[in-house]
Write a structure and sequence with these properties.
alpha/beta, Aminopeptidase, Alpha-Beta Plaits, 8-stranded mixed sheet, 4-stranded antiparallel sheet, elongated
Length: 376
């Protein structure tokens, strides 16, 4: 079996048996088996799920990390592929099965070349990316010790196979979450004048929040405020006493990230006060932005050209990625890799081209060796 066939087999097996964040037990065992069969060293870390492994070159050098996320999503699959999920209600709808197979392939290739390789490549098969907790958890278990640079990627359905997206600086947004409780006065729906209606107040807040971007901060700052949950009441003829709202804010600039929470709090508290209600506002910082280091831009492009890949300017995304947590510790770079998909991430009919598997594995092996040869 050649490498391409091997990686297709690995990817399809992962796709058939997807597992949710921090439940990736079978996935973990499969990765460990495949790496062990190739003679690759698995580090003895206290991991509930996930795998950290190393390929150690015979020549001295730096230690860098390549990361792949391994978890799936709570989605009922509608892709129609013959190797569809056999775990009801769970699907690899973001391509983490692809990421995992690619990095297993890169590890196999580097293991075959270790006698000529300088330094060490550590592979981070990370759980719980979809929960945005896996990178931090893996780091707490010692996975990033002695690492001097980190690299990762995400498949990109709207790019063809053989194309990679490269962007220096900000690539994916910082992610924050807000929660809001409005406390009014409950009462009869036919006599609202005797109540303080948290639904009406919440509706004012939802609409007013949309004026912060462009009216209080510049539209050029690429910020997004989304209210994603609004719950209140339990019957048709009673005005409830409370309403609960929840949502997310995505930004690319640190100063905007800090200011937008202040503007939201000010607006929310003023609207609530003007209507005689009380409000509790919670702001939870989740992830920094994915910020690609200029140290690696040229070598990433050079290796891509040598591998016969076409480089395009990567589009920014207001999606979040906990790979950013690794980049907060050491310099790093995150790429888009084209997979010629027909649906976006998290879609129940998500599919990708397996022709990208071997191409991507060989690219990562080449890039890792090139970075180690050049030095950090």
């Amino acid at each position: 079996m050649n490498l391409e066939q091997q990686l297709i087999q690995y990817r399809r097996e992962l796709h058939r048996f997807p597992e949710l964040s921090m439940q990736e037990y079978q996935t973990t065992q499969r990765i460990r088996t495949w790496l062990s069969e190739a003679g690759i060293t698995i580090l003895d870390l206290p991991l509930k799920t996930g795998v950290v492994a190393e390929v150690r070159g015979s020549l001295p050098g730096a230690t860098i990390a390549l990361r792949a996320d391994i978890d799936a999503l709570p989605i009922v699959e509608q892709s129609g592929v013959e190797f569809s999920s056999e775990n009801p209600g769970v699907m690899h709808a973001c391509g983490h099965d692809f990421h995992t197979a690619v990095m297993v392939g890169a590890a196999i290739l580097l293991q075959q070349e270790r006698e000529q390789m300088r330094g060490t490549v550590r592979f981070l098969f990370q759980p719980a990316e979809e929960d945005a907790n896996g990178a931090k958890w893996l780091t707490e278990q010692g996975a990033m010790e002695a690492i001097q640079a980190v690299f990762g990627f995400h498949n990109r359905p709207n790019l063809p196979v053989g194309v990679i997206g490269v962007r220096e600086g900000a690539l994916m947004a910082s992610v924050d979450r807000f929660e809001l409780t409005i406390t009014g006065i409950s009462g009869h729906a036919g006599m609202p004048e005797n109540c303080i209606d948290p639904i009406a107040i919440g509706s004012q807040i939802v609409m007013a929040l949309q004026t912060i971007v462009s009216r209080r901060i510049s539209s050029l700052d690429n910020a997004v405020i989304s209210v994603t949950r609004f719950s209140a009441g339990n019957t048709w003829n009673v005005i409830p006493g409370e309403a609960h709202l929840e949502g997310t804010v995505r930004t690319f600039q640190k100063d905007v990230r800090a200011r937008i929470s202040e503007l939201m709090r000010e607006l929310i508290e003023n609207i609530a006060a003007a209507n005689g209600a009380k409000v509790q506002f919670k702001w939870n910082e989740c992830l920094p932005m994915v910020n690609n280091s200029s140290l690696f831009t040229s070598i990433i492009k050079q290796v891509a050209n040598e591998a016969g890949l076409r480089v395009v300017e990567a589009e920014r995304s207001l999606g979040g990625e906990d790979f950013a947590y690794f980049q907060a510790l050491v310099p790093g770079f995150f790429l888009w890799i084209g997979v010629d998909g027909d649906q976006e991430w998290h879609h129940p009919a998500y599919r990708l081209s397996e022709a990208a598997l071997e191409i991507s594995a060989r690219y990562w092996a080449l890039l890792a060796r090139a970075v180690l040869e050049k030095g950090i």
